[in-house]
C-alpha cells in the first residue's frame, strides 16, 4: 500500500462519517413538522404564521446537513490531501 491509497481510503471513511451530520437535521425537521401540525390542529386560524415560522426554522437547521454534504463531496471528488 502506498500513501495515495491510504489517503483515498481515509477520505472515503471521512466522507461517510461526515454524512452522519445529516441525521440531526433530519430528526429535528421531522420533530418541527410534527409540532407544527399539532399547532395547526389546535389553532387553524394561525396556520400561516405557524408554517412560516416552521419553514424558516427548518431552513436554518438544514445548513448543518448541507455543510456535512459539502465536506463529504470535497473529500470524495476534490480531495485537498492528494
From TrEMBL:
TM spans (from-to): 59-78
V-ATPase proteolipid subunit C-like domain mapped to chain residues: 13-75
Marked site (Reversibly protonated during proton transport) residue numbers: 62
Cell compartment(s), UniProt: Cell membrane; Membrane
Pfam families assigned to the protein according to its UniProt record, in alphabetical order: ATP-synt_C
Membrane-protein topology: Multi-pass membrane protein
Main location as per UniProt: membrane
InterPro entries: ATP_synth_csu_bac/chlpt (IPR005953), ATP_synth_F0_csu (IPR000454), ATP_synth_F0_csu_DDCD_BS (IPR020537), ATPase_proteolipid_c-like_dom (IPR002379), F/V-ATP_Csub_sf (IPR035921)
Keywords, ordered alphabetically: ATP synthesis, Cell membrane, CF(0), Hydrogen ion transport, Ion transport, Lipid-binding, Membrane, Transmembrane, Transmembrane helix, Transport
Family the entry assigns: Belongs to the ATPase C chain family.
Purpose: F(1)F(0) ATP synthase produces ATP from ADP in the presence of a proton or sodium gradient. F-type ATPases consist of two structural domains, F(1) containing the extramembraneous catalytic core and F(0) containing the membrane proton channel, linked together by a central stalk and a peripheral stalk. During catalysis, ATP synthesis in the catalytic domain of F(1) is coupled via a rotary mechanism of the central stalk subunits to proton translocation.
Listed NCBIfam families: ATP_synt_c
Protein name (database record): ATP synthase subunit c
Organism for this UniProt entry: Acetobacterium fimetarium
Organism classification: Bacteria, Bacillati, Bacillota, Clostridia, Eubacteriales
Amino acid at each position: 500500500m502506498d500513501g495515495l491509497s491510504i489517503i483515498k481510503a481515509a477520505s472515503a471513511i471521512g466522507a461517510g462519517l461526515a454524512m452522519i451530520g445529516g441525521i440531526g437535521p433530519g430528526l429535528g425537521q421531522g420533530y418541527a413538522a410534527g409540532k407544527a401540525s399539532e399547532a395547526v390542529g389546535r389553532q387553524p386560524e394561525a396556520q400561516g404564521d405557524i408554517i412560516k415560522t416552521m419553514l424558516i426554522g427548518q431552513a436554518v437547521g438544514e445548513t448543518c446537513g448541507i455543510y456535512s454534504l459539502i465536506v463529504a463531496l470535497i473529500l470524495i471528488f476534490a480531495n485537498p490531501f492528494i
